[in-house]
Write a structure and sequence with these properties.
mainly alpha; 66% helix; coiled coil; single chain; (apollo) hypothetical protein
């Protein structure tokens, strides 16, 4: 009876140590997850800000017919002239069709 009680007591102590160790690991992982969430939110905000910055000089024109071997820069310059906007080819970084 005494041996059985000692065995059960040691087994309970071992299980308690494991539970304590698991709780400690869980606390550490929880802190790491919280830190990663803060980093993710920061990176998400920075990405959104950079995307907005990249788009701030974009102009979208709709309904421009597509012509074989067209020069998009010339088309944009022509449209700007017709709209009364002073624009030169050096002002245009790139033109693409979407």
């Amino acid at each position: 009876m005494q041996a059985s009680l000692e065995f059960s007591s040691k087994r309970i102590d071992t299980l308690q140590e494991r539970a304590n160790c698991s709780e400690e690991k869980l606390k550490i992982q929880s802190r790491e997850i919280t830190e990663m969430q803060v980093i993710l939110e920061s990176l998400s905000f920075k990405t959104q800000r950079q995307e907005q910055w990249a788009r701030q000089l974009n102009v979208e024109m709709v309904g421009v017919p597509e012509i074989k071997n067209e020069n998009l820069t010339n088309i944009v310059l022509s449209m700007a002239e017709k709209a009364g906007v002073v624009l030169s080819a050096g002002d245009i970084k790139s033109c693409t069709r979407v």
